[in-house]
Amino acid sequence: MACPNEWRFEMLDHLSALINKLVGSDDIDFWAITGDNFYDQRGDVVPEFFSKLSDKVKSKPLLTVPGNHDFWIMGDRPGTDTDNLGYGWMQYYGQDTVASFHTGDSSPYNFSGDPDKSELASSATLCLAPSLETLPSLVIPGRTTGLK
């Protein structure tokens, strides 16, 4: 989903420069994207964004929380055939998930849902339990209606 002012405001360049400056400083220990990570249905926006970040930024822990657009591109049900229902987020942003405590094997994810039936990814896969010493927390997505 394209932003109509993307080129006018040079969002990609300005945002990546800002993150490189702030997160790349010694004052920041980790950073987070808290919902609606990217409206990327084709898989080209996310790699382009991260390619513009410095190695110093990429070496710092990144937490992400899925927002409603990380489930449904238009933001809500009934959705479209190209909605990723949280599966794209969980696989692209591999993190310490609550599911890793319950799978019984080495997988940190719960793939029990069926995206072909419009079932959302398991809430245990979408809830995070980051193991950062400076941030003991449990991160739960705000839009959890319909999650198992």
From TrEMBL:
Sequence ranges assigned to domain Calcineurin-like phosphoesterase in this UniProt record: 12-92
Pfam families: Metallophos (PF00149)
Record's signal peptide: none
Entry's Gene Ontology molecular function annotations: hydrolase activity
InterPro entries listed in its UniProt record: Calcineurin-like_PHP (IPR004843), Metallo-depent_PP-like (IPR029052)
Name of the protein in question: Calcineurin-like phosphoesterase domain-containing protein
Native organism: Polarella glacialis
